[in-house]
Amino acid sequence: DAKTTQPPSMDCAEGRAANLPCNHSTISGNEYVYWYRQIHSQGPQYIIHGLKNNETNEMASLIITEDRKSSTLILPHATLRDTAVYYCIVRVPSGGSNYKLTFGKGTLLTVNP
Amino acid sequence: GAGVSQSPSNKVTEKGKDVELRCDPISGHTALYWYRQSLGQGLEFLIYFQGNSAPDKSGLPSDRFSAERTGGSVSTLTIQRTQQEDSAVYLCASSFLGPNTEAFFGQGTRLTVV
Question: What's the mean pLDDT in B14-25?
Answer without folding.
Answer: 98
